[in-house]
Amino acid sequence: MIKAVIFDNEGVVVEHDWDRVARAAATAFSLPLKTGSAFKDSLQLPTSQGNTLLHEYGCGKISSDFYWSAVLESYKLPPTAENKVRMSSTLEFLTTDVNEESLHGVTWLQERGYLIFLLSNTTPEIIKGTKTRMDYFSLFDACYFSYEMGCRKPSPRAYLRVSEENSLLPSECLCIDDTLENVLAARRVGMIAEQYTLGRNQSLAEILLRHLPFP
């Protein structure tokens, strides 16, 4: 029996817009305007180990100073303290509006006594900007952010940490994520998982009613 629902954040609970981040960076540094996708790619910065610096930063394995210095150097910009603040703050613009259907789903779950968690691959800047504009994190029983956990989806450690810290079996958790790779990873550890993306495919209500008793 499902006792908990684990939500992804960006793309599931809150809208996000990489084009807006790209515009902020272009304005801040008089850079050529890139698409959001291209700007996001420019933040990856592959490493010799086959990983990316953004991945390492999102897991809290490298410092903000180290990561943003590398980003600035990739753009041939001096890695001054001021420039690091200006470039890092562009990520604060990523999230836009919390989705009303998702909030309704969270409220529906709360009223029925389910545990509700947030599990997000993210950075401190994204969370800072989101908290500045929106106030929905308190609705969750706990929020798990990759940069605080030291791991990120699709690592099995990310999912199992949520279940183990809350005395849950993986089979008692329903995981909702917009990335198929993360959905499949959740299923591999024994969770029930569904892919859901704001504005696409099935509604959140359909997913919840498929797996949870009604009313």
CATH class of the largest domain equals: Alpha Beta
Shape estimate = globular
What is the strand content?
A: 5-15%
What is the architecture of the largest domain at the second tier of CATH?
3-Layer(aba) Sandwich
**Overall radius of gyration:** 18 Å
Number of helical stretches of at least 4 residues: 11
Indicate how many domains the architecture comprises: 2
Q: Helices and strands, in N-to-C order? A: EEHHHHHEHEHEHHEHEH
- Indicate the structural class: alpha/beta
Mean pLDDT: 95
Q: What's the CATH topology name of the largest domain?
A: Rossmann fold
Total number of strands: 7
CATH homolog superfamily of the largest domain? HAD superfamily/HAD-like
Q: What distance lies between the first and last C-alpha atoms, to the nearest angstrom?
A: 15 Å
Q: Strand order within the widest sheet? A: 5-4-1-6-7
Helix content: 40-55%
Largest sheet: 5 strands, parallel
Extract low-pLDDT stretches. none
Tell me what you see in this structure.
The chain has 215 residues and is α/β, with parallel strands linked by helices. The protein folds into two domains: 4-16 and 96-211, HAD superfamily/HAD-like (Rossmann fold, 3-Layer(aba) Sandwich), CATH 3.40.50; 18-93, DNA polymerase, domain 1, CATH 1.10.150. Helix content is 45%, strand content 14%. The protein is built from eleven helices and seven strands. The strands form two sheets. A five-stranded parallel beta sheet has the order 5-4-1-6-7, sandwiched between helices. It has a two-stranded antiparallel ribbon with strand order 2-3. Helix 1 crosses helix 2 and helix 4 crosses helix 5.
